Amino acid sequence: MLQHRSLAGRALPGAQQRPCVASARRVIVRAKEPIVAATTLLEKEQEAAPSAAPGRGAAGAPSTSGSKWVIDESELLTSTAEHRAWTFGPMALMGAALAVAGSHVDGPGGALSAASAVLAAYVLSDLGTGVYHWSVDNYGDGSTPVFGRQIAAFQGHHVRPWTITQREFCNNVHQVFKPAAYPAGGMLLLSPVLGVWPGFFLPSFLFLVCMSQQFHAWSHMKKSELPAAVVALQDAGVLIGRAAHGAHHRPNFEGNYCIVSGWWNQALDDSGFFRWLEKVVVATTGVEPRCWYPPEHGWIEEVRPQAK
Ligand SMILES: [Zn+2]
Ligand SMILES: [Zn+2]
């Protein structure tokens, strides 16, 4: 028997489940300035969800008991010292690994190898973000081990997509750079023995995947809100643009998952790659993806409130 909505279909609480917010452990710092309709994910008290029964409740409303994360509306959007440390620290590790790789370049052949590695990292990072985005949009929920917070954040983004545009840079990207600190450290340790090509490819790939969080934010902004250089890169197709990513934000959120350049989106969607992958997942695990069904109540995109 298929297990649709046992893992894939459990909804996180939306605005209709405010009582859950009351049971959340407050771990946020409030900004001095009033914040309009920002959201964050708060870790619930473990004892607040003793019965993690998945799926919908008896009355057909989304189950709120199974998720470890809930949405809060008084989120800090500015960057803190901790956000900056978790952004620039891993960036420094990646930069140091690249510097070691650079010290191995000797002559035009090495330079060509380094350039091809960076180009490959750019092209493949788009594919990597697409596969990752597809997986967290469609499987698991806020209580999934390790990835629960990321899953809840991606799915919460479908409900309130404007929130990502309100975050300062380090506030936004530290969420991805922080877990990347560990592979970045590993790359730096290995860098003395890596050749030029892997020495350039690995840190470049990791950096671009982390930066996709910001490329994604830029794709939700109007051109008038963006630096001219970003608009130029979007217009040139180097970075994913507003129209290309906007195509993802249509129920059932079943395509256009790539968020670096978006180059892979058409090939992946036209070829039916993700539908094939979903059938493989169903055949092997019995779990259906969310995108096979309309979004559950509470996960339909809300209207952006007007700033006062
Ligand atoms: Zn999505
Ligand atoms: Zn988006």
Automatic annotation (TrEMBL):
A single BP term in Gene Ontology: fatty acid metabolic process
Domain Lipid desaturase: 122-292
Biased composition annotated in UniProt, kind: Low complexity: 48-66
InterPro entries per the UniProt record, alphabetical: Lipid_desat
Membrane topology type: Multi-pass membrane protein
Localization: Membrane
One Pfam entry name: Lipid_desat
Alphabetized UniProt keyword annotations: Membrane, Transmembrane, Transmembrane helix
GO CC annotation: membrane
UniProt superkingdom: Eukaryota
Listed name of the protein: Fatty acid desaturase chloroplastic
Species assigned in the record: Raphidocelis subcapitata
